């Protein structure tokens, strides 16, 4: 990483920013002491994409809206039968 004095940044701002735009990372110094770092902006990733890249999550296997659970007390839903079926699937 190259260091540039703040004076050079003030006098050649366009040239310095062009270097950063082309991928260089530059450290700005005042009296020889680093005070700032100019880095190129990378395209933003969604939180899910970033977590998948870090290995902290699995990529989604389907797209579209997540189905809502049935309303509490819905007489058409037999929770016991659904749970028994899910347990049977796990056993095999």
How would you characterize this protein structure?
InterPro entries: phD-YefM_TA_antitoxins, YefM-like_sf. GO terms for molecular function: toxin sequestering activity. Belongs to the phD/YefM antitoxin family. With 92 residues, this protein is α+β, with helices and mostly antiparallel strands. The protein has a domain at 1-57: YefM-like domain (YefM-like fold), CATH 3.40.1620.10. The protein contains four helices and three strands. The protein has helices at 6-11, 13-21, 47-54, 79-91, and strands at 2-5, 26-30, 33-38. The chain has a three-stranded mixed beta sheet. Strand 2 and strand 3 (33-38) form a beta hairpin. It starts with a strand and ends with a helix.
């Amino acid at each position: 990483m190259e260091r540039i004095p703040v004076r050079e940044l003030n006098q050649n701002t366009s040239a310095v920013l062009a270097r950063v735009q082309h991928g260089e990372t530059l450290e700005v110094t005042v009296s020889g002491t680093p005070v700032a770092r100019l880095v190129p902006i990378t395209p933003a990733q969604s939180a899910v994409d970033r977590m998948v890249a870090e290995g902290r999550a699995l990529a989604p296997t389907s797209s579209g809206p997540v189905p809502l659970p049935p309303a509490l007390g819905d007489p058409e839903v037999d929770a016991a039968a659904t749970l028994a079926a899910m347990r049977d699937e796990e056993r095999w």
